[in-house]
Amino acid sequence: MSEKTKMLAGELYTADDPELTADAARTAAWIARYNGMADASAADRDQLLREAIGDVGEQVTVRAPFYCDYGYNIYLGTGAFLNFGCVVLDVVRVDIGAGTQIGPGVQILTADHPRDPALRARRLEFGRPVRIGANVWIGGGALILPGVTIGDDAIVGAGSVVTRDVAVGETVVGNPARAARR
């Protein structure tokens, strides 16, 4: 089994595998082009976005600068909006639902590392998918950790660190993010 196949399956893999480093290099070149087109037309940015991202719905906005590992594991629903400076570490699938709004400087992380120091010393890592539902609002500077699912219509407060799933319609704030009092 290739390292890329292991990565996509969420198994332990070595990120400095030649196939993965070639993919990452292609993505880095794409990121440079995409981030250099901040003043281009919406149609031109959309066309370029579709070159690297796994799936892009209609009327999606991703403001530059934007950063990701591979791009092909990111799925953006219709009307999704990612503000300036978002980072998506997409070693496995990241789903962002229709109409979801993501504030500036948000980080969505699927990459994780073994807790066993001997495995970490071998430079192994793995991924856990992140799923963000439809019509979610994620405030600026929030951090979404590996394996988290955020339900439809949820709100994540600015600067929150989301370490566990967020229920449909729930508002969470803080570090670690907890349900907000009403």
TrEMBL record:
Residues 4-58 form the Maltose/galactoside acetyltransferase domain. Gene3D superfamilies: Hexapeptide repeat proteins. It comes from the Bacteria. It is an enzyme of class 2 (transferase). Transmembrane segments: none annotated. GO terms for molecular function: acyltransferase activity. SMART domains: Mac. PANTHER family: ACETYLTRANSFERASE C18B11.09C-RELATED, SIALIC ACID SYNTHASE-RELATED. Keywords: Acyltransferase, Repeat, Transferase. Belongs to the transferase hexapeptide repeat family. Its EC number is 2.3.1.-. It comes from Sphingomonas kyungheensis. This is Sugar O-acetyltransferase.
